[in-house]
Amino acid sequence: MGGQLVRRRHGRRQGFGWGRALRYGAAGVAGLVLVAAGAFTVNLFVSKPALDGSLALNGLTAPVAVSRDAQGIPTLTGDSRLDLARALGFLHAQERYFQMDLIRRSAAGELSGLLGPVGPVLEIDRSRRLHRLRHRAEQVIAGLPADQKSMLEAYADGVNQGLAAINGRPFEYALLLATPQPWTTQDTILAAYAMYLDLQDEDALTDRIRGQTLARLGPEMTDFLYPRATSLDAPIDGLPLPEPALPSALPALGNKTAMINADPGPTIGSNAWAVGGALTANGAALVADDMHLGISVPGTWYRARLLVRGGPDAMDATGVTLPGTPALVAGSNGKVAWGYTNSYIDTADVIVLEPAEGTPGRYHTPEGPKELTRVRERLCPAWVACQDMVVEESIWGPVVETRADGSKLAVRWTGHEPDAINLTGLLGLERAESVDAAIAIAHRARQPQQNLVVGDTAGNVAWTIIGAVPARFGHDGSIPSSWADGTRGWNGMLPPDQIPVIRNPDHHRIWTANARIVGGDAYAKLGDGGYDMGGRQAQIRDGLFSRDRFGPAEMLAIQLDDRALVLGFWQEQMLAALMARPADARLAALAQPVRDWGARAATDSVGYRLVRAFRTALAQKLYSGYLGLDGPMPRNRSAAQQEGPLRRLMTERPPALVPPGYKDWDALVSAALTEVADQVDKAGGIQSFTWGARNVAEIRHPLARILPPVGWLTDPPEQGLPGDSMMPRVQGPGFGASQRFAVAPGHEAEAYFHMPGSQSGHPLSPYYLQGHQDWADGKPTPFLPGPTRWTLTLEPE
């Protein structure tokens, strides 16, 4: 009996023990969650940037006044440019440090050290480590002139003091249970490298895919499908390039060739144009710019006005800065206004390494056989063990691919040059006094190669390339080739007097939109790194020639132009195909919306989305058939000009070129229409198939993509947006105009500015997301900062 009692007691105690443990455990977890939530909330409230009062900033030679307006846009006023760099670093750290950290880590291949091996983060790190950009940043720093080193040092010091002055830590680190690491001068160079990586084909994927296509389809079909020019081109110099002939027959395709399976995402582009003083009321040039990038919260850019009072450093410049760097990227200094678009000139080439006898890493060069250099890179993701990867480097650049036969491909890229980055362009343009001075500065600058559009108070306008241009010999850089015998390669960079310039054309208009700008010898010098098709550029050009007088309002109208001129051809094709198939009830239901499509990428348009989907489905099926792909073709810059061949094929419908897998052209069209009808059904019916339902903003904080609940705190309300990639108003999910402005130098008070996201990265800032809805709605807001709401004085310590 006593034994039974003991057993019962033990049983009761055992059962009660588990229950109590679970209750205590649940209470403990809940308590920990509450403590963590409480700690995060406290940190969130105390980590807001300083807006008012006076703070000591070590290293200043004189006080710097920081006056912010209602949107948080600061005017920094000081006695020297070096002081402003230190103060700007302070502000960037206070409001954007997490963004700066992601930028430098992305370039260096160190994202996983903060975010862990989640999703594709570790793979991104591996691809970036191939380029060893932290090592290259050290080389760049070593080669900079003393004044630029001093600028970087002042900026980095200001950043670290701004970070230290935050109570707690930036809220993102509190969520990640991480501690932000200090900023260095090398990190600023990495921020510039990040723009190289965003804007260029650092692995020369386009050339590699073109080489694979050439091996499968032969030169005639490859040249036709991936033309260098089409009838849509709108170069400023008006020089045409010949379109390739329509092939007479398909080549013997044989077995499917494995294509590189890569999707680089949306086209990184931009619009920029200018009109000369002859076309403005005040006689000054008028420059418009909207750079198209991935958009998140906060925005890509940090707006600022930089004012140096008197002396040799005197300046008054307003525009956008890139957090992580100390200079204005685009804007106006009262005498010159400037903006950029991605140039897509050819900045990277693929070299086929010819194996030499001996060890596997031996290859031929013009100086004789050499060994590949093997460098060990160590990746240390958060929460898991470190791992090593080996980077192989040739005299031309790193090995980016080992093919099935064992041969290796290396890449020569301007981003690998020892002088790939300097501050000459950014700091020089802040003080440029004329278009001619800006051009001279651009040709000494080292930064991602961009179309520079510039205008001055005297009414001059110009275009040129800012940054270094490779001086190729023996090849055009379009496909992989061997450089082993010395007959092909680069002779360094073009001297400044050989870089193309268009200055003050007779019609007083400059326009760029990522398409080809020049023909003839100038085109041959710049090469083709995957120019956009010319439809968007032509639409801008035609808008500029539609009138002979311009002010900011007329510039904004072109920036917000969402007319679907390029897709007009496809609306006609789709409507004709639908009318020819009346017996198919699903297709018949699409005819009326297509007929009444409105010819605009409007959010409520069903017809626009239908036409857009039809064009996309047909293009993917056609190219995938030719290339032997089981699914949609890989997106790459080679196919940027596909509009030309697509139109020619659909107009002429040559029987000999029907893509494999289809009986005839009607069968291809039917397959595309069926795919569109399937998309409509999946969306819930024709009334739900609006462009706004497809073209949603998706502007999120980077952490919200990993931790979705963060979005409740950080992200703007979701909404559909007008516009698309084939028109001036470029907009897509998480992508679009990272800013918009139009400004005449000397008349900044009449100019406007838009920016998505937020000036501040802190969600409790009083101006968090201010201006975002104006950007979405296309509502003009002032270019210059408004009346002062907060004043912070940074004092020498």
TrEMBL record:
- Cofactor(s) needed: Ca(2+)
Gene Ontology terms, MF aspect: hydrolase activity, acting on carbon-nitrogen (but not peptide) bonds, in linear amides; metal ion binding
Q: Does the keyword Transmembrane helix apply?
A: yes
Q: How is the cofactor bound?
A: Binds 1 Ca(2+) ion per dimer.
Annotated SUPFAM superfamilies:
N-terminal nucleophile aminohydrolases (Ntn hydrolases)
The GO biological-process annotations, alphabetized, read as: antibiotic biosynthetic process
The UniProt annotation places Ca(2+) binding at D346, D349
- According to the record, the signal peptide region is none
- Where does the sequence pass through the membrane? 21-46
Active site at S270 (nucleophile)
Q: Which UniProt keywords apply?
A: Calcium, Hydrolase, Membrane, Metal-binding, Transmembrane, Transmembrane helix, Zymogen
**Hey, which family's this protein in?**
Belongs to the peptidase S45 family.
The name this protein carries in UniProt is Penicillin acylase family protein
